[in-house]
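Table 4 source record.
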Amino acid sequence: MEEKLTFEGREYTGVSFPLGNVPLLIVKAKKGYVACSYVSKDAAEKFGDVAAFVTGVKTFDEFFKAKIKAFTTWADDLGIREGMSVKKALELMDQG
């Protein structure tokens, strides 16, 4: 299910889909997305996506409190780093 999310005064598109024991969660910004670990970093890298990944989240509240665990080369080019807050990663993906 796609929904509009407001986080720290910014609007994003969120996707939540029940899948197995935990939901698939993705938050899309202008230049990329942050996703749960259901999304493959290898596939995102192959497709040239600006993407970062979090783990251990079941809700958007948990998602927004998580820290970045992995990211693609293109996300690295924007300054996204492991341990960065989701807030900061989304801000970097929203610039421009």
